[in-house]
Amino acid sequence: MRALLDPLQGALLILGAILSLPVVVIFASWIAPQTELWQHLLSTVLQDYVINSLLLACGVGIGTLLIGSTIAYIISRYDFPGRTLLHWFALLPLAMPAYIIAYTYTGVLDFSGPIQTTLRDSFGWGYGDYYFPDIRSLWGAIIIMSLVLYPYVYMLARTAFSEQPASLLQVSQMMGISKFKYITQVSLPLARPALFTGTALAMMEALADYGTVQYFGVATFTTGIFRTWFGLGNGLAAAQLSSLLCTFVLIVLLFEKWSRRHIKYYHQGQHHNLQKRKKLTGTRALSAFVLCLVAPLLGFIVPTFQLLYWAGITYTKNVDAQFITLVFNSFCLALAAALIIVILSLLFAYTRRIKNNKLNNSLGQTVSLGYAIPGTVIAVGVLVPLSWADNLVNMLSEHWFNNSVGLIFSGTLFALLFAYSIRFLSVASHNIEAGLSRITPSMDNAARSLGASPARVLKQIHVPLLKTSVLSAALLVFVDVLKELPATLILRPFNFNTLAVRSFELASDERLVDAATPALAIVLVGLIPVVLITHAIDKTIKGKS
Amino acid sequence: MHLLKNCHLSRALAIGLISLASTLSFMGSVNAEEVNVYSARKEALIKPLLDKFAAETGIEVNLVTGTADALISRLNSEGKYSPADILITTDVGRLVRAKEQDLTQAVDSSVLAEAIPATLRDDDGHWFSLTMRARPIMYAPERVDVANLSSMEALTDADWKGRICIRSSSNIYNQSMVAAMLQQKGHAETLDWAKKFVKNFARPPKGGDRDQIKAVVSGQCDIAIANTYYLAGMLDSADTAEQKIASQVNVFWPNQGDRGAHINVSGAAVTKSAPNRGNAVKLLEYMVRKEAQAWYAETNHEYPVLDGVEWSETLTQFGTFKAEDIPLHRVGELNAEAVKIMDKAGWK
């Protein structure tokens, strides 16, 4: 076993080091302190950045936790008319990029949008005569992001809830524990690793968001990074700001680890004894239905209809042969990235499971920091080491062959896939580790002591039990890459565009109506894996029960 | 065993991807007659022109679009092996920044020198303006007496309290506008202006230029500062609601008695490492030809730099105006100071 592992450990170390390079580049910026600029930031805008970012992350955390776990609990515990439909619907917002939904809701709800205009026209009001919440605010950003990010919590929570054995409920009922107490003291704590993971992912996504907060005029760390870099022309100070953001995320992740240092949740794998869903009728069925419908309705259906309406006006102008290429590019890129990233995170997760040492743990942590770093910053962090490698390769080839080979790393899709790996490894890793933590080491031990080879343990125990998590990981990475914008924008090779880039270019040129067609295409392409993978996950869960 | 297989698989995949990627890059570099463009102009607003150039000359044009600063970063890290020949930006500040970072080279072309007025190109021939954009005041005629409008400076009067809409100071057009004012009025006066100007905002800045125009029409504010091509774009929009909104504001050209209305330019530079320098110059020269200039004017409602090219009908309706006359490179150099001033003034 040891002999087998050491080359693996070595390979992992190298891989981890390469994937950590951009984060190292960002932290290395402190070598040149920018005292004067920091004084300016401290005395003017830094406070806003910190407070708004914290509020945004916490707000989105609470929002996604509430929505995601409520829907997951109802769907996995109760049976009611429309349940099957709703458990599909609940995942749909995953395919909706936050900046797109922000654009559409602004179009609908803003002062000059149709709703407020109708109100003013029908009641004869003018500006200031009535109160209407401003969508373009911190609160608006929290709500918008919660609406599209809650599936992160929902996916993980649903798996966790549906895998809780019936024996738990039976025992609790026998001991006279109330329904409420059962939820708060048994069910939720058991699902906590999954819930926290989902919430943490949503929070990191919120912290790294640029498109939405920028459009809403909320000054956060990310807008601050861009402003410092582009406006003040100080790339070093921008990198230093990014490193602060990284540190903050690291603290949150460490805190979560610390808070569950004494707890190890491993479920018993008694799949024959899963809880039966309770049938609901009448008003209770209706309220369950409505509760599960609101979020997907607001997070997906309403904005999709708005996009459809806009696309209906402009699609003839925007759909051509080039458009098909865009769809193809986006799909292939997302698929390739999902495959690579899932394999990478399986590699990391397994090495950590088998060799749970400090080195592997901190490696895993550094690598997963990428998720909270804005895509643009990652892109620059990627460009620096890749260009260095390219320069080296070209120098060597000029020396030996008298011919330069061009930018084989930084100028090709390699750079994009590299950046995606750093940015989204965390999404896949969290899912896979949550899955892996539900397979007890005693299962491995039992199987091994019965003479099964490690390969057989993997094939007959881990693969079937992990399938759900691996599929969820692939799905999340796929849609994330599909929606990814800033890194794609900077790193893509010549003549290569994606749907997200096209949609953003039009939207940032304030041509929302034209941007609707590519935006709608992102949503549709994103739906393909959502449908396929949910189907596969359902089959696995059903197969177990 | 499976673990090892996984490891092999990922290596095999990585190797496969690298070779695929290098094949792609080779494929791109086989063509002898080509020119590589890094453009901060959006694809929709540059590709048609590049396609025409390619059809006419047989030179293949490869394009990457992105934000100017990101493209500059990319140029910077790619160094001398960068494939880029031309950098196109939508503001002069970024061209100046690229020149300062030693990423551009001088071009000596009589075609460019004849077509572009000296004030609109770099003294050393490093960058050239391709189009001009203007940033006037737009107002709601039923609520604003045009006699009360005069200059940007006058917008600090208490009369305008709660009546002005303008986008965030993170936006390059505002940064350039304040940088231009810094050049003409100096630090103290500009800071004082910014502080008073911000006090008159109707709402915290949000959205883009079109949103400010919409806010004026809906009554949230009475005047907005926005680039003319946004208003023109709304008037030409496929969305009739936008057309209707845009038809309800008028354009006022400020500072006509003194320093002129603020303008910015879009422009281009040949990169220092340009592997296809000759083709790059050809493309630049193509972009200041009459047809190309007319295309810009007609498609995106920008003002041509070449004399004698007709403006679009919509732009003509907004009227002629006296533009600022300052050394454009100063706008780029003063950008950081402008941002600091806006930070101090509390301009979000």
Automatic annotation (TrEMBL), chain A:
One Pfam family hit: BPD_transp_1
Domain ABC transmembrane type-1: residue ranges: 50-254, 327-533
Coiled coil: none
Record flagged with keyword Transmembrane helix: yes
UniProt xrefs under PROSITE patterns: ABC_TM1
Gene3D superfamilies given in the database record: MetI-like
Topology of the protein relative to the lipid bilayer: Multi-pass membrane protein
Subcellular location: Cell membrane
Primary location: membrane
InterPro entries (alphabetical): MetI-like, MetI-like_sf
Residues passing through the membrane, by range: 12-31, 51-73, 85-105, 138-157, 213-230, 236-255, 285-311, 323-348, 369-388, 400-420, 465-482, 515-537
Keywords of this entry: Cell membrane, Membrane, Transmembrane, Transmembrane helix, Transport
Family: Belongs to the binding-protein-dependent transport system permease family.
The protein's name: Iron ABC transporter permease
Annotated source species: Alteromonas aquimaris
Organism placement in taxonomy: Bacteria, Pseudomonadati, Pseudomonadota, Gammaproteobacteria, Alteromonadales
